Amino acid sequence: MNIRHPWLRELVIETRKDPAQVLADLLAECGKFEAVALKVKASYASVSTAMKSYGINPVKRFRQIADFAADACMTVPEYLQVLADSGKKLTQLADEHGISHQAIIRLMGKHGITREDVRSIEWGGRRDTMHGHCRWFGMSYKDVQYARTEMGYSKLDSLDYAALCAESRMRRAA
Q1: Domain ranges of the chain
Q2: 121: helix, coil or strand?
Q3: CA distance to 11, 15, 33, 47, 104, per residue, from 42 (Å)
Q4: From CA 165, how far away is CA 88, in angstroms rounded?
Q5: Residue 79 — very low, low, confident or very high, per pLDDT cuts 50/70/90?
Q6: pTM for the whole thing?
Q7: 131, 137, 143, 147 alpha-carbon torsion, rounded to 10°
Q8: d(Cα 6, Cα 45) in Å, to the nearest integer?
């Protein structure tokens, strides 16, 4: 018996079953690879590798978003657009729906849905991140950081402060 994973080897010896059957029973009992990993006190990667080597693939999680969409009487793209417009971080949305944030990103990409960066703010007639505003208007991001951390300014006030600093530098240089 050449079983690569020590935790699986112990279970096979203990139960005297085929490794594929042991893994199938564990998955039926626990429901998810993550729960199996917790039960056998092994890493998710080890459990996932063992399951895949015996032909057991993880259940695709995309179905859960479809369930939420159906509950809201929406199509999946409509529901994803609502999620994108909610202004919440992807990790928060993922936690609420029981899936990874990468799965939400992939689903949004699959359906052509884009979302604004949650850190973006409106300033100077543009919507961008603070760093993006600094690049666009030629301001020093260090001035913005100084105003935020040392002076306690809000995001908008710190951009105003950086603009004044950039303007005074330009006057001194001329």
Answers
A1: 6-53, 62-110, 121-173
A2: strand
A3: 12, 18, 11, 7, 27
A4: 33
A5: very high
A6: 0.45
A7: -80
A8: 14
